[in-house]
Amino acid sequence: MTSTLPELYIAVDVEADGPIPGPYSMISLGMAVAGRPDLTFYTELRPISDEFVAAALAVSGLDRDRLLREAPTAQEAMSAAAAWVDGLRRVGRPVFLAAPAVWDGMFVHWYFVRFVGHSPFGATGSGVDLRSYWMGLTGSEWARTRQGTIKHELGLHDMPHTHHAGEDAAELAQVFDAVLRRRQPVEEA
Q1: Which letter does DSSP use for residue 24 in this model?
Q2: Which of 99, 152, 185, 187 would you call most buried, defined as having the most Cβ atoms within 10 angstroms of its Cβ?
Q3: What distance, in Å, lies between the first and last C-alpha atoms of the chain?
């Protein structure tokens, strides 16, 4: 039986110090609910391995030595993230959203399963990918689905992408909220 509560699209953004979880670390995680700018979550994470790619680490601007000294452990950070997502169930049904969902989803699902034992987004960790959603909505080709292109087509011009996971999750939440407002209502058969 489906709940009568609305779906809550949880925009998720990850910063990492390498291309895959496990050998490399997720170093920050941001989440924001589309249409609800008051509902956000952000944490940094202590790296879980000694390996990192300097260029990947540089994207976030985070200091790895500071994270090793001061950031919560992956278990602490992911437990707090899971509790935040689960707390949203009072007002809606959480649905994972990312851009691209493959990148962010890979890290988030792996970290939830590894450090919490399960993902609050379900057994597969699946969710909505902004670019795929935009393709279906507009009929555009993949090459025309970059987030910057989508923002331009929606008239969202003063929204920088900062590579701060919390800020970028809030940006994605705003973009997806605008995308949802643009879609045509589906007639029931």
Answers
A1: B
A2: 99
A3: 20
Per residue of the chain (189 residues), what is the pLDDT tens digit?
567 899 999 999 999 999 999 999 999 999 999 999 999 999 999 999 999 999 999 999 999 999 999 999 999 999 999 999 999 999 999 999 999 999 999 999 999 999 999 999 999 988 999 999 999 999 999 999 999 999 999 999 888 899 999 999 999 999 999 999 987 665 554
3-state secondary structure of 52: coil
Say how many C-beta atoms besides its own lie within 10 A of residue 170's C-beta. Answer: 23
What is the token pair recorded at 107? 């890290």
Is residue 27 within 8 A of residue 15, CB to CB? The reply is: yes
Are the C-beta atoms of residues 29 and 45 closer than 8 Å to each other? yes
Give the three-state DSSP class for 104.
helix
- Whole-structure pTM value: 0.94
Nearest Cα to Cα of residue 133 among 102, 105, 104, 99: 99
Is 28 within 8 Å of 42 (Cβ atoms)? yes
Let me know: does 12 contact 5? Beta carbons within 8 Å: no
